[in-house]
């Protein structure tokens, strides 16, 4: 059953990237992230009450709560970096780097969870790394912009991948002794606090008045897609191995690339297409 949840997570995660890209086109990325998190929070707690796990809150151990908070903090950092990278770069540039967090996740799962990678997984990691490298392309920059500005999206994308890997490991530990929907809801509270804390620190809350209806719509839809992805992902992570669930979830790159072509008219070069095939092949090998 965890396999179906993992593929469901990949589908909704792929949709999230496109919906968020459209939603933050004319909106500050940190503010958009904070607004999206409200939708995720409402949806995740709704699921908690649907399954009736709210009654188990008092039985949560201190260790579980600690790892859920740490996982939520890592998620918040990953989100802020990811959506800033999406605002500065294209979906086809940012997504492959973000999905490369699979490599770090497998290494961390081996080190801290005792999940030993197989020979197929080793080959898959190599193909995934090579494919990601091929998919990194230079973004056309406006005249007068410096190297730091042109590469800012890359830095944010790399940070997003690092924090995403930490999220998976911390989340795996945190939801071992708790119902997955409740664990997701608690983590989302932490993400919400971090996201809005940054918004108020930067004094960008006043920018909400400038958000147009289209942006509101897509920010809301991306939040809903994220909520669905999270619920599927952490249910799969609770039942399956992190080193298997994470690679399947990262297949969302296929959904993202297809949607970016249809809705954003972002085309892949031959180099990037070969890279995509390597990423898919490497990801599938990880499942062996």
From TrEMBL:
Residues passing through the membrane, by range: 30-52, 64-86, 106-131, 152-170, 182-203, 215-236, 242-263, 270-287
SUPFAM superfamilies cross-referenced by the UniProt entry: Multidrug resistance efflux transporter EmrE
Main location: membrane
Keyword field: Membrane, Transmembrane, Transmembrane helix
Location(s) in or outside the cell: Endomembrane system
All copies of domain EamA, residue ranges: 2-136, 152-287
Membrane topology: Multi-pass membrane protein
InterPro entries in alphabetical order: EamA_dom, EmrE-like
Family: Belongs to the EamA transporter family.
Annotated protein name in UniProt: Multidrug DMT transporter permease
Source organism per UniProt: Paenibacillus aceti
